[in-house]
Every structure is written in C-alpha cells, then in structure tokens.
Amino acid sequence: MVDEVKEEYYTVAFNIISNVGAAKSLVMEALYAAKEGEFKEAQEKLEESKQFFREGHKMHKSLIKREANGEQLQFSLILMHAEDQLMSVETISLLVTEIIELYKLSK
C-alpha cells in the first residue's frame, strides 16, 4: 500500500513537472517570437502555455485538496521540485508577458 501511494505521488509530481516544463518552453518561444516582432505567434504561444500550466496547477491542487481533507501526504524532493517548477513558470510567464508588451511599444 505504501509503495502504491508513493508511486501515485511521484506520478503526480512528474506530471506537474512535465506540464509546467512544456508551459515554460512555450513561454520562452513566445518571448523569442516577440523579440522578432512576431506578436501574433507570441500570443498564440502564450495561450498554449496557459493550457499546460493549468493542467499542472490542477494536479497540484488535487494534492492540496487531499491534504485539506485530512490525508497525510508524504513529501519528497521530487514533489518539492514540482512545486518549485510550478512557481517558477508562473513568475516567468508574468514577466515574459510584460516584456512582450515592452517589445510591442518599441516596434
């Protein structure tokens, strides 16, 4: 039973990492597109990145709900890494969105 729970947490953590990693890649692609003046492409990349971020956030939220309902979660380095990636991508997304607006003003 313990191994099944641990495996489940690892699966959730890796899914968070995978989704937010895809989101981060798309956000950076959006930045590079905007730098070249391709603002429509940049906006499309940002929108696509939000879908991946939402999926990662949804998985993270499922763990929070479980703990709020009284389940004792076993934290691990991999789960902490997933949370770190989630927070980093959120920050990067906000900053890139603002940088893209600055690129628009300079073109």
Provide keyphrases for this structure:
107 residues, Methane Monooxygenase Hydroxylase, Chain G, domain 1, 3 helices
Architecture overview:
There is one protein chain. This protein has 107 residues and is mainly α. It has a single domain (1-106), classed as Methane Monooxygenase Hydroxylase, Chain G, domain 1. It is built from 3 helices and no strands. α1 (2-35) packs parallel to α3 and α2 (39-68) packs antiparallel against α3. The protein is elongated. The chain starts with a helix and ends with a helix.
Topology:
Elements: H1 2-35, H2 39-68, H3 77-106
User: Helix segment count?
Assistant: 3
Main sheet properties: none
Do you know the CATH topology?
A: Methane Monooxygenase Hydroxylase, Chain G, domain 1
Total count of domains? 1
The string of secondary-structure elements, in order, is: HHH
Shape estimate: elongated
Report the top-level CATH class.
Mainly Alpha
Mean pLDDT: 93
SS-derived structural category: mainly alpha
CATH superfamily, called what?
Answer: Phosphotransferase system, lactose/cellobiose-type IIA subunit
Helicity range: over 70%
Question: Unreliable runs, pLDDT <50, ≥5 residues?
Answer: none
Write down the Rg. Answer: 17 Å
β-strand percent reads under 5%
Total strands: the figure is 0
Calculate the terminal CA-CA distance, rounded to whole Å: 59 Å
Cofactor: Mg(2+)
Organism: Paenibacillus odorifer
Modified residues (Phosphohistidine): 81
Active site: 81 (tele-phosphohistidine intermediate)
